[in-house]
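ok so I'm stuck.
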Amino acid sequence: MPCARGAWALLRRAIAGLLICGGLAATAGHAADSQGVVTLGDKQPPMNAQRLGGAWVDATGGTSFEQVLAGAGRFQPPSPDRVYALGAQGALWLHYRLSLEPRARIRWQLAFPMPAIDSVTVYQEDDTGQWVGQTSGDTMAVAKWPEAGRYPHFRLYLRRGSTRDVYVRIRHEMPGNFPVELLDGAAFEYRVQVEYLGLGVTFGAMLLLMAACLAQSLVYRDRAYAWYALYLLAIMLCVSSYTGVAAHLLWPGFDALGDAPAACLTLLAAAAELLFVRSLAGISARHRVIDRLVLGSGLAGIGLAVLLPMLPKGPALTMVAAYVAGSTFASMGIALAAWRRGDVVGAWLLAAYVPLSMAIVLTLARVFGWVPLPWAGQYTLVAATGLAVPLLLVALSLRSRDRHGARIRELALSSQDALTGLLAPHLFLDRLRQVLARHNRHRENTAVMFIELVNFRRIKEAHGPAVADQSLLRTVMKLRRVVRDLDTVSRIGEPRFGLIIEGVASRNAVTERAASVIAAGLMPLAGLKPEVILQFHCSAVLLYEKSMEAPDLALALHELLDRMSPRTRRPIRFLEPDATVDVPADADSALFDQDSVLPAPGVA
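replied:
not stuck anymore, here's the structure
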């Protein structure tokens, strides 16, 4: 009996050991297959593959695919929000077990919607049972990808009713969260079409604005619009490079610089932003030191973009992030300062750069893997850029209008008298030349009158410059009453005015106009304090009576006025006619021999 009990105890221990070993083996087998099989069907929507399969980080990056296939990797359920810091050597391995439903379509895609990802290699069995590795990524030309596109995507070789393993190796030097999607081929094509539709609308609008700005620059001869077109070009290239459009459509066969073009174009766009905001906000007149710093920073960004491909990738991208962040905050500060001082352009700049700055910060956070932001995709930057571009154009139009207004006022000062708004003396002389030339050709009747405010200096000494200037403005008002819109009136001296009256054939008509002005000046303006009267002298000539060049004619009229005494009783005088000219025998001829008789005073 003791022997039987001992044997029974030994048997129970052996059975328990076998059960324990079997349980451990079953547990180990379940752990190896913990990721399960993903079954794909026709009615399934696109799946986020970050939550599927298994993941393993090869810190050294030295493990080959054969070693992984032999069981070198310890795949664990992945975390979709994890940020992987792989460094320059590390690699992330993913493992998926996929199967098709018996009646499902075979066209399925494994997509990695991250255009900036360095390298993605997918290993799967082909129809012959051989393992095939295909590689795509930002560090190689799109023309060498197995499937061209904006971001890496791979066609899966699946069979109905069978399970196949798919391995993925991801290399990316900067920390990042790598999106992975499983979707049907038709759904993938539809998504690509929708993506390119949105990007095409955005880039098409930018191209249209560029063409409009170049046209305005040529028509209005305003270089600001040309610089804005160049700024738009830099933004377009930067966004197209970040979204993968440039590598796919613009330079699909270029890979001499690896993935450096995107960073270089980002620096150029940030530098162009600084220079554009500096010019638009006009800080050079208010903050000269800050203006010099912004100008130097913008030029430095252009230089750094040229040197960037020669620098190590890690420090280079860190420098790009610092420069982009600095330029963004500097632009915001300049716009805020302009808005606070009441500049409406600053308000439009803020409206443009607030969403754009938020999108840039989120993009940097996503690209550098600072925080997992799966919702802050590449389209956030595209949408913010599409919103900012027309707002910046509005700000540019407002600033251009202000500058054109100042330029027009400047030109007006050179062609008009600043106080009275009358024609400048040199333009009056040009007009007199034209009238003389037309008179010599067509013998048109025209009179030229010079009128002087004789007591201007006494008014200025007695009542001050303000009253003297007011007397000049009163003189202009009185002159306007005796001329038509087609006649020419100019201020040709401080208290002296010139008139060209066309269609006048007799001295009587000239005398009536001059007498009306003289009489109106003798009537003080009602309610004016002090009561100031205006005394005028007039020298005139009918062109058919005197054949002279314009400068000589003007000089003769000036000399005739200068010879008049301030107390003369002949305030209206004509130049002596040429001896060969037949002067009509009318009452006007008596004006050369006796004082002119003034009519009754008119209303001032």
